[in-house]
Design a protein that fits this description.
394 residues, alpha+beta, Alpha-Beta Plaits, 6-stranded antiparallel beta barrel, 20% helix, globular, TrmE/GcvT-like, GcvT/YgfZ/DmdA, GcvT/YgfZ_C
Length: 394
């Protein structure tokens, strides 16, 4: 019997014929129909995702902003009410324990959304790091459901369920902003509606009480039926976020990586100060300050495949002689070159029509246009360094 947790929508997924898979300690839908169809639906219309495996940790009290500023690399105090920021929680050595989104719901109330497999650890760390501050830390992951509608028709679908008094406010939400809204679902559902997502498309994430998850899921499927909305699983979510160049914890980010190596140094605020104007230390600050001014050992880059074969996470990135396509493989005597990096995520891109990958490589081969190869089971498959993201919506 599986020890994996299930979300409040587990029966809904099974009724829709979803293929289920383990992810971060949870049993989640991998796909409902096909990875390609679900991916393309999100790019062209809309997809509905169950994200109830994510962690939701609330910090409330006069010391909430200060506690988060001590705990995370970013500045929570600088977040306006109703807005959100991407951040990270790091260890003393500057390595990434998890990447997070921090919402400021009120002056003294923050919501931290953590990755599923790290949620319990993040709750423990925030509690420990907030000791001495006037703040209450509450892990509400088990009582909260989260669903996302992503795609160019997401706004039409979501606002069709929002009570008229709040619909204009939801339409006016900027990217990385959130607003409470009353949804016309059943007898009514209170939700936090955030204009955030992980697909590279416009979209919304809706936080509701776990008891309201099924009613909301069914209402969104019905509201989106005429707009091309389909339920989408983890496989489409992964290929969408890869095209958008978004990191995945356990792939681009982990405890061997700092934000700077991942090209995310912009989220680190080394200059944070307290109410008295004194420099505010946070966990990992000294290590990150040193890392910022040191030469990197590796750099995260995008790779565009020039052939048809895709790489996979963990495959070696190797050198390629100028003009050597590497397509003939070892059978024709083409040898795999010198290892210069490792693929972290890879897939054929449904939107772009060629293989793409993210990889950590040594700095000397990280420039745009550098011709490299990936060792795909002994064959030197050609790739070239390109900027991230691979895809931007119009």
């Amino acid at each position: 019997m599986s020890d994996e947790k299930t979300t409040p929508l587990d029966a809904e997924h099974r009724a829709l014929g979803a293929v289920m898979t383990g992810f971060g300690g949870w049993l989640m839908p991998l796909r409902y129909t096909s990875d390609l169809a679900e991916h393309r639906a999100v790019r062209a219309a809309a997809g509905l995702f169950d994200l109830s495996h994510m962690g939701e940790i609330h910090l409330e009290g006069p010391g909430a902003a200060t506690a988060l500023d001590r705990a995370l690399v970013g500045s929570a105090a600088a977040i306006a009410v109703g807005r959100a920021k991407y951040s990270m929680i790091c260890a003393d050595d500057g390595s990434v324990l998890d990447d997070l989104i921090v919402y400021r719901l009120a002056d003294e109330h923050f919501l931290v959304v953590a990755n599923a497999g790290n949620a319990a650890m993040v709750a423990r760390e925030l509690t420990a790091r907030a000791a001495g501050d006037d703040v209450v830390v509450t892990d509400r992951s088990a009582s909260t459901a989260l669903v996302a509608v992503q795609g160019p028709r997401a706004e039409q679908i979501v606002t069709s369920l929002v009570a008229p008094a709040a619909a204009d406010a939801v339409r006016a939400l900027r990217y990385y902003a959130a607003s409470p809204a009353f949804l016309q679902v059943g007898d009514g559902v209170e939700a936090l509606v955030a204009r955030t997502g992980y697909t590279g498309e416009d979209g919304f994430e809706l936080f509701v009480d776990a008891a309201d998850a099924v009613a909301l899921w069914r209402a969104l499927l019905a509201a989106g039926a005429g707009h091309g909305l389909v339920p989408a699983g983890l496989a489409a979510r992964d290929s969408l976020r890869l095209e958008a160049g978004m990191p995945l914890y356990g792939h681009e980010l982990d405890t061997t990586t700092t934000p700077y190596e991942a090209g995310l140094g912009r989220v680190v605020r080394l200059d944070k100060t307290d109410a008295a104007g004194e420099r505010l230390a946070f966990v990992g600050r000294d290590a990150l300050a040193a890392r910022k001014v040191s030469a990197p050992a590796r750099v995260l880059v995008g790779l565009r495949g020039e052939g048809r074969r895709s790489a996979r996470a963990g495959y070696d990135v190797v050198t390629r002689a100028a003009g050597e396509p590497g397509r003939a493989g070892v059978e024709a005597g083409v040898k795999v070159g010198v290892k210069v990096g490792t693929v972290t995520s890879a897939a054929p891109s449904p939107t772009l029509g060629h293989p793409i990958a993210m990889a950590y490589v040594t700095p000397e081969v990280s420039a745009e246009g550098t011709e490299l190869a990936v060792d795909v089971r002994g064959r030197a498959e050609p790739f070239v360094v390109v900027p991230l993201p691979f895809y931007r919506r119009a």
